Amino acid sequence: MSISTKVGDRLSYDGELCTVRFVGTLPAWPNDVALGVEWDSPSKGKHSGSYNGVEYFKVRTPGSGSFLKQRKQHDGTRSVYEALVYAYGTEVKIESIQIGGWKMAEIYGFEKLQKMQKVFTSLKDISLSRKCIDRLGSDEEETLTKESLHGLHRLDLSFNLISKFDEVVKLLKGLNLEALNLTGNQFTSHTISSDSVNLSQLNLTMTYPSEAILSSLPTHFRSLHELSLCDNGLTDLSSFVLEFPCLTSLNLSMNQFTVIPTVLSDSTITTLNLANNDITITPKMTTHTFPHIVSLDLKRNNITSWSEIDTLVEILPSLVELRMSDNPIFEGWSLEEVEYQVIARWPTLTKLNGVEISPKERENAELWFLSKVGSGDVKYSDRKTTVLKQKYGKRAQDVHFTDPDIVELEVIDGAKMLNVKVMGSVEVLRLKSMLSRMLNRPFLKFDLTYEFGKFKEHLTNETSLVSSYGFSKGQQLTVEAKIS
Fold first, then answer.
1. What is the C-alpha separation between 384 and 158, in angstroms, rounded?
2. Does the keyword Repeat apply (predicted)?
């Protein structure tokens, strides 16, 4: 271990990544230099930076800290070019990952270097994930790296040890990448510059960027269309997001937002992901509208009431696609009843929880909804109820006396069996979407079958209603892997 290890450095031990938060001595190790580290995986930690009641460093996540002796062997580090050779230069045996000041041709041999460069320049997608990269490298390595990657479209540098954001900008300068994945690198420093690079998609999940880094993004990435800031502990969003000329997609999932960031009301964002936050919708949010957002993901938040849904309808006038499963509002209602309510309340929606809303399904949802309003089970604006009634004319006059048929099914998936209740007016497509979430199976990877006498039938018509099959109570449906 180099004695130059300093606070902010990133290291890897047996594949587990950490950030150095303290370098010094401990009473227990008077003859050793101690490192206080914060593990990326909190379960690896033993404390929060304290020893015998004395705090030596702070951690972002409680319990994620440990002390290590500096002489403990770590996994080493690589430059980008060394990692490129390690991952893709299969003809070359690398004796050491320490380059020092030697020239690359002397290390690899001129012929092998030429062969590797030829291979590298033909690659369009490169993954250098978990290769212990902590630097761009020497001037010669930087030159070779950029020569190697000039035809590259997508680069994955996730879960490496890069701590200096300006190293990333320096790497990208002169390249023409479409997408860069930096997930799991944690940036502890950044030298502000005006360098601008070409990039369409940037993933900064779990990088914990400082406000200085966030504010520099529009300067560095003028052509950015998609930005992911997942799992960064964010509670608010500053105006830097308004400075991107082309940004249309923003992923803020797995953060700590409690409201939709109001700054986005002035942005050009059309696709917004806020899943896995703690968002509630309050009446005062009607002071801001989000006219450009057409696709919104609010899965696993804290939406508890239908008045919140009605507020969302008001502040998102252009929304056509919504995901909102696993919110408290689902409690006390069946999944399809919640989805029917959302469809009926939200006239602009064309896709809900990943499934297209067909004209027939919208009609069924709105008539069912009118029946619930008429019976007093659901409260809704008189004005909006009148609009729905006018849409259906005489068909809506006595609809409140109608109670929807409930079909009880037994769904068999291998050794699993689920008892599922659905409304007969639900389409097979919506039933499959619901089962996909309940069984954790990809929607497009399974079919549903049932036995009709001696024959096995497939539910192939996904726009047909469940009631059209005449299923009796307890009808068994079998989940089968779809044959591609």
1. 49
2. yes
